């Protein structure tokens, strides 16, 4: 039987890469979609040792590029069953210093990517004559306010709103739409933030990282694979009766 196909954005590194690895184990063929094509190709080469993967370059904030990347995926891998809109930017910015330029960039990448990813998924699923699963990266910061994250948080709350609305709009087409909300995950994005927090307090990156685990009930930061396990559930048949949800996977920060 032909493999099911998953298209994952931001899969060159971090959470997206862990999702690609996990869905490969689950038996999916993977499109590793990323701005960073060298990184995407490296991930795809690793996945090809045990499964099937291609690298696709795109800027998720550009509608045409998202459509082209999804079309390439269907042409090369033969189908599309799951779209994971994972790529995002995570700037920390005091609310009073947010600029128009930052606003436009972060909303275009974090929120624009969700609209374009959903639209491209709908087209591909319809062309293939079946439904599918759309899975969007929100955040713990899309559930509650956090210091200096007004720009980021706004985008991640928006993603929950889009997820809930799209779930209602697309259920008739056999398409489910859910989100995952990671807490604090050990990825390059988080390392950058730890560096910034450390610098602001005259300390090192490790000190910055330690500050984050203080508010986590389970007492440790998340591994990318913790989040990938949650996405595996949302991509698989056990979540068939779930849509419009935002699953928190934060080690106990928000409850
Ligand atoms: P990361 O920064 O480590 O990796 C992001 C990937 O997305 C990179 O490979 C990058 O090249 C790619 N990317 C960035 N902008 C792009 C664009 N315009 N077009 C195509 N690709 C682009 O990020 P990380 O930490 O793996 O985060 C993944 C998602 O999870 C993001 O949406 C983030 O907001 C969310 N998240 C992360 C948390 C964390 O603690 N790391 C916590 C909560 C949510």
Bound molecules: 1,4-dihydronicotinamide adenine dinucleotide
Unreliable parts: none
Mean pLDDT level: 96
CATH topology of the largest domain: Rossmann fold
CATH architecture of the largest domain: 3-Layer(aba) Sandwich
Binding site for NAD(+): 13-15, 34, 59-60, 86, 152, 156, 182-187
Active site: 152 (proton acceptor)
Function: Catalyzes the irreversible reduction of 2,3-butanediol to (S)-acetoin in the presence of NADH.
GO molecular function: diacetyl reductase ((S)-acetoin forming) (NAD+) activity
Give a written overview of the molecule.
This protein is α/β, with parallel strands linked by helices. It has 2 domains: 5-184 and 223-249, NAD(P)-binding Rossmann-like Domain (Rossmann fold, 3-Layer(aba) Sandwich), CATH 3.40.50; 186-221, no CATH class. Helix content is 48%, strand content 15%. It has helices spanning 14-25, 37-47, 63-77, 100-128, 150-170, 188-200, 205-213, 224-235, and strands at 5-9, 29-34, 53-57, 82-85, 132-137, 175-182, 246-249. Helix 3 runs parallel beside helix 4 and helix 6 crosses helix 7 (205-213). The chain is globular and about 55 Å long. Bound molecules: 1,4-dihydronicotinamide adenine dinucleotide. Residues 9-10, 12-16, 34-36, 39, 58-61, 86-90, 109, 137, 139, 182, 184-185, 187-190 line the site of 1,4-dihydronicotinamide adenine dinucleotide (NAI). 1,4-dihydronicotinamide adenine dinucleotide binds at residues 9-10, 12-16, 34-36, 39, 58-61, 86-90, 109, 137, 139, 182, 184-185, 187-190. One of its GO terms (biological process) is bile acid metabolic process. Its EC number is 1.1.1.304. It is an enzyme of class 1 (oxidoreductase).
